[in-house]
Amino acid sequence: MPMLFQKLRKAIETLLITALLAMVGLTFADVIGRRFFSAPIYGAHDLTEHLMALIVFTGLPLLTVARGHLVVDLFDRYLMTDAMRWWRGVIAVLVSAVLLLIGYQFVLAALDAHLIREISQELLIPRSYFYGLISASCFISAIAALLPPPHSNNIVTKENT
């Protein structure tokens, strides 16, 4: 099973790199076309918007599993002790609950977008699929937030202090 997760992670990382490269290339070409030829790329804004959503929300589960979110380590000396393990559990449950709530709201948004046939302004790309991607990403991240960290060597013990 871990081998399957490694292959899936590599595939997602490749997708993220490709999407980021496409976004950079598209933005570069759009700026060059706009500045030098007075001919911007039609739909560049829509494509950039969708690529950004793809990058952010496809990467969210990977970031959550790796515990790569931005943290303030002001109180780590106290909170990362064995005695405060319960606190880290409470925080993990709260993070998971927030991600579940966001995922649920995007399920509702996807259903509404499908119902009213919401599309992007220029290229007429249906929005419901991206709302579904965001929702699935949040649900997967909510599960990942409850998993134990990949390595727990940040725990401060009495020998380390």
UniProtKB/TrEMBL annotation:
Q: What does this protein do?
A: Part of the tripartite ATP-independent periplasmic (TRAP) transport system.
Question: Which one of the record's GO molecular function terms can you name?
Answer: transmembrane transporter activity
**Which terms does the UniProt entry file under GO BP?**
C4-dicarboxylate transport
Topologically, how does it sit relative to the membrane? Multi-pass membrane protein
List keywords of the entry alphabetically.
Cell inner membrane, Cell membrane, Membrane, Transmembrane, Transmembrane helix, Transport
Species of provenance: Pusillimonas minor
Protein name listed in UniProt: TRAP transporter small permease protein
Cellular compartments annotated: Cell inner membrane
Q: Which family does it belong to?
A: Belongs to the TRAP transporter small permease family.
- Enumerate the InterPro entries for this protein: DctQ, TRAP_DctQ
Q: How does it assemble?
A: The complex comprises the extracytoplasmic solute receptor protein and the two transmembrane proteins.
Q: Please give the Pfam families that the UniProt record associates with this protein.
A: DctQ
Provide the Gene Ontology terms for cellular component: plasma membrane
Residues that span the membrane, as ranges: 53-75, 87-108, 128-148
Domain Tripartite ATP-independent periplasmic transporters DctQ component: from-to ranges = 23-146
